[in-house]
Design a protein that fits this description.
The protein is mostly helical. Helix content is about 75%, strand content about 0%. It contains 20 helices and no strands. The chain has helices spanning about 10-25, 30, 40, 65-95, 100-105, 115-125, 125-135, 140-155, 160-175, 185-195, 200-220, 225-245, 250-255, 260-275, 275-280, 285-290, 295-315, 320-340, 345-350, 355-364.
Length: about 375
Amino acid sequence: MIHSNYLSRDESTAIKGLLIFLIILGHNAVLTQSVKSIMPFLYLFHVKLFFIIPFLYKVKTNTFKVSLEKNFVRLYYPFLVFFFLLSFAFYITNDTINDPNQIANIFKGISDNKFLYFSSTIFTGSPYLIDFFTGYQFLWFLPVMFSLNITKNLLQDNKTARFIVLILGLVFYVVFYSLALTPEISRLRFNTMLFSPFAITQGVAMYFLGYVCSKILLNTKYNKVINITGTILFVALSVFLVYNLSINHHFIKESSLGAIYRFAMPFLAMGIVYTFKEKISKVRVFRALGEVSLPLYIFSTLICTVFYLIFKKFDAITPLNGIIAQVLIMLVSYYFVKLFYKLPFIYNKIFPQTLDEIKIWFSK
């Protein structure tokens, strides 16, 4: 089945670029440590909007095999490559993995079998385990997008199964991304993500978000009153949230309004982005960032760490230096990726185009 585009190619690319800009902003610790409200605000929606974009494309249903191969090559294989590389780097530079007390503190009630944890991360993409073994959590995006795309392809023409998955997705979305972080909920999230193959529970949660949001956008795209109201509501809630975060950094976690914010902000944020998609598409910087969004997402996070360590060494963690760092991180990350593109013998081994390429490399 093929449905018409809700986004043009330029609009899609530019929106991805805007989201990459926001992700770099959220990872820019020089800025987020000096302006405490930025990170909790951005983390309500900036990565989640990436999971809505696939529902706004022209899509041709593939067979399960084709969809599986395509998404494994594009998403899961890079996840495995960077998980192994970052785990190795973290292992030789940090003794956390070898600290049995640290393992006991993080995984209460679970055997401290590090090999089991490491192996399960390969097949589950658990963000908790990714963080534990690599020192970073950002790789969680890749297995979740992998499962989302597979689920989306399977349910394209099956209304009954789609309804069931949407109900499950609503439950997982509320549990993972809306409910307050009580000890019980935190434990439930941890156990669910620990044992979910290929991050399928998170993928189903994001399927709910993407499918429902795309339907709302489709049915209201010509309604200027709704678009203006949504924009005003997003801005008003954002101002209210940032103000309260400036007073209490844990406002989102501690306030009863936190669950509403966590549930609703991705919908409202995508609504405002969709409303202004034509204007966003005209911003050349966003289009440039969007053209290399996947490698930029990965490498910019690592480059953010380098800049944070440099600024921290000189005791220069200030809002002004955070803005300077944002510009530098974007420039260095972008041109690093562009340079990386010109080294196909390395780039293609990390971001291959086909499954046959991977088979050839491993058969040598």
